[in-house]
Amino acid sequence: MDVITTHVNADFDCLGSMVAAHLLYPQAKMVFAGAQERGLREFFVKSVGYALDFKRFRDIDLAAVTRLILVDVRQAERIGPFAELIGREGIELHIYDHHSASKNDLRGTLEIVEPVGATVTVLTRIIRERGIKPSPEEATMMMLGLYEDTGCLLFSSTTGEDFSAAAFLLEQGADLNTVADFLTQELTVEQVALLHELTQNLSVLNVHGVDITLAHASTERFVGDLAMLTHKLKDMENCQVLIVAARMGDRIFLVGRSRLPEVDVREVLGEFGGGGHPYAASGVVRDLTLIQVMERLPLVLAQQVSPRWNARHLMSTPVKSVAVNTTISEARQLLTRYNLNALPVRDGQRVAGVITRQTLEKAAHHGLGKELVTEYMFDDVACATPETSVAELQELIVGNNQRFVPVIEGDRMVGAVTRTDLLRHLVSGGRIARLSSALHPDGGGGIKRHQLMRRLHAKIPERVVVLLKELGDLADELDCQLFAVGGFVRDLLLGEENIDLDLVVEGDAIVLAQAFTRRRTCRIRVHRKFGTAVIIFPDGYKIDVASARTEYYLEPGALPNVENSSLKLDLYRRDFSINTLALALNKEHFCELVDYFGGQRDLREKAVRVLHNLSFVEDPTRMFRAVRFEQRLGFRIGKHTLNLLVSAVRMGFLNKVGGSRLANELIHILNESEPFRALERLNDLGLLAGLHLELQLGRRNRRALKAVGKILHWYELLYAEHDCEIWLVYLLCLTCDLDDEAMQALCTRLTLPQRQRTQLVTGRAAGHQVLRYLSRRAGSDGTLLPSQLYRRLQPLTPEVILYLMSLTSRDAIKRWISHYLTHLRQVQCLLTGDDLHHMGMPSGPLYREVLERLLGARLDGRVVTHEDEVNWVRKRFRNHLPKG
User: Fold this and answer.
1) Which of 126, 359, 641, 704 has a CA positioned 20 to 30 A from the CA of residue 1?
2) Model pTM greater than 0.70?
């Protein structure tokens, strides 16, 4: 006789798996090994479940059993009285399960165990392969099990196979209404009371840096569906890890749920005789009291929970250091250059001590600048290894008052943990991801990895996603770490499409780019001085790749000096925290978020904040970028950052910046879709006056700037053959109140190219003359021949013409300019110089006069056809044509 059974306290996955197994073993008897959960019991009462041919255990002759089929279980202690059959001679054991392996697992004659969301999924695959089709009722019961164990396909353990199984069952007629009715039931009075007691007895235990929520309750009667109550409590309290212990009568029921790989609740509850998955487990304790269970849980957790953070996750690398023969003055200069507070002192590869800024400053004050750092360094320095726990680091830094802890691997210093590193980690609750052998699977707190992956595929073209994965795989082969950084990551978190890729390599960016060109049809442009490369594809798409680097400024406003560094220091040199986010691209950690400097927090708070107090001093162009990001993203400049900006403006640091860099920032702002608000902000902060004292917003240029947006949009809709530089039109409107001398001075300050200077000075002056002429004509009789309009506007560039259209408030002039741009500008004579030659007219400057006057006649409607033009020329220039 064949028997199909499952674990005690059977749930819907047990039911669905038994039904599915019966399709594979139609002669087998289905028998529950013990009690069922309340929801399953109600199903048998209210649905077709009562018609299923389930047998009671007392009706089974164990001596007649030759094959035992276990579903959703493989531990003898969980199959009740059927455990008696295990090991008996002549018994064939078949196992179908989806739980991961544990030390007490049975070994079967046939074992089919797959890492999917439900055992129903395992059996459904086999059923499909054998061409078996379940009835709608059977499909519904199987779907109940699949939906329960995968949380309606929402649990993180859900796989693609689970979705495929659900699709197949739906095709076979599974009734989702029935599934919904039995999986979403109202709580009973007893369940509400138990849930309330659990919420009252809630505590949070921090184990190795991981917050674990514990809850307990006690009742004299059995209350079903503790797993469902645990799930509700987890959602109510937003727990990453939750373990519930409930005394019901003389037994303690345990349920565990975990979203973190550091906490395997199967192993935790396995210490109490339970089992399940790493993320969902349960158990029953009979020989301990509730108090004993709650006292033992912290001890078990301390043994089973993997330390979430250690020194390798917090440390900075590489570390700036000095040799033992370095002087006080040299070390002091190095600290200032790299904005450091402490330096390790090396004796060869060995760490001999640590010298701090405070010590160096005092030594310099006492005239000891030429002395060696070894004279005043701290030589009693405790070191850590990469595996040193956060608790041990905290004792070293806080308990020993050691602000700088070198991290040693063998004889080599591989990094360092500072007091600031530890403080940032503790304040963040351990949510800041670190770049070493392991990144936090949640991407450093905030948005989860799977959410980022989903957003990446939704917002970024598939071609770009494929490129990112290929580059990540290549980085693995080259044994280096690769990250996407900057605006691409920022906009991805904001849900905006941005395919402008900047990649940072903890390694040699040029080597990676060169290796990529050997795989793809593309070329690279290399800048060896900066360790950067640009990958250029045949269609013109570009990817910037750079080696991780740090920079320092020799003086305010100067271009930085650059050195190779780590990703953390590379991100630290960036302008604002919202631009310091990085996305890991290596295969193992693909799409994990790295956030050292609170970028996610500032995105949530919609704040633009600098990373350090000298940010605007070192690079004053960041003041323009702060305004640009604030207005583009709808953010606000943080209060402290705003104070630093105002101070930098007041102290005149803009005067130290090269004109081309200022021009570049201004052009970026003017190319924004709506630059007016940004210009108002620049004006209020005194940044416009920083470009030229007379440059400010008044009534006239405000009106022009408000009008120009609509005019440029209208011009774009014309699909005109003549492109126009949008930023140049906006700049003309912004500077409309400047006289020619001031405009020339502004162009000089911005070191604009000659072509643009010509438009802004000469072209603008010519435009003003035309506008005065048009104003006079509009103010007199209001008439203007098309040829007269053409002759005035044709020498002007599209930018100047659109500027005039924005500047004028007269509708007649706007209509004239519109008529020129939409009609007159495209008009051409039908006759050409060749035609005049064939008519017998001598070659020379006369051709130009003839064609210009002929064009005027065509513009004014005096000629229409080719014949009209010939006759017009013969009539007016007959003296220049052969007689007859």
Assistant:
1) 126
2) no
User: C-alpha distances in angstroms, 292 versus 288, 299, 520?
Assistant: 6, 11, 63
Which token pair is 563?
């050195």
My answer on whether omega of the bond before 318 falls inside 30° of 0, hence cis, is: yes
Cα separation, 470 vs 289, in Å, equals 56
Output 152 or 742, whichever has higher pLDDT. Answer: 742
Please give the mean pLDDT across all residues of the chain. 88
Single-letter residue type at 553:
Y
Q: Token pair 């850590």 is at which residue?
A: 384
Query: What gap in Å lies between CA 756 and CA 396, rounded to an integer?
Result: 61
pLDDT band at 602 (very low <50, low <70, confident <90, very high): very high
pLDDT of residue 444: 39
Q: Say what angle helices 676-684 and 699-717 make with each other, to 10 degrees.
A: 160
Q: How far apart are CA 484 and CA 593, in angstroms?
A: 10
CA distance 219 to 507: 61
Q: Is 86 exposed, middle or buried (0-12, 13-18, 19+ CB in 10 A)?
A: middle
What gap in Å lies between CA 367 and CA 392, rounded to an integer? 38
Instruction: Please name the helix (run of DSSP H) or strand (run of DSSP E) that holds residue 267, with its range, or none.
Output: helix 265-270
**Three-class HEC string of 88-110:** CCCCEEEEEECCCCCCCECCCCE
Which residues make beta-bridge pairs with 275?
282
| Res 483: pLDDT | 95
- State how far Cα 863 lies from the chain centre: 63
Share of the chain above pLDDT 70, in %: 94
- According to DSSP, residue 824 is labeled G
Provide the angle, in degrees to the nearest 10, between the axes of the packed helices 12-24 and 136-150: 140
Give me the amino acid identity at 76: A
The amino acid at 340: L
Q: Which helix (H) or strand (E) holds 809?
A: none
Separation CA 670–CA 662 (nearest Å): 12
Looking up tokens 């693609």, which residue turns up? 160
Under a CB-based contact definition with an 8 Å cutoff, are residues 337 and 366 in contact?
Answer: no
**Tens digits of residue pLDDT in 637-683:** 999 999 999 999 999 999 989 999 999 999 999 999 899 999 999 99
Distance CA 548, CA 569 (A): 8
Q: Helix, strand or coil for residue 168?
A: helix
- Rounded to 5 degrees, what angle do the CA atoms 292, 293, 297 make? 120
The 8-class DSSP code of residue 56 comes to P
Residue 679 CA to residue 598 CA, distance in Å, equals 28
* E strand or H helix that includes residue 418: strand 412-418
Q: What are phi and psi of 60, to 5 degrees?
A: -100, 130
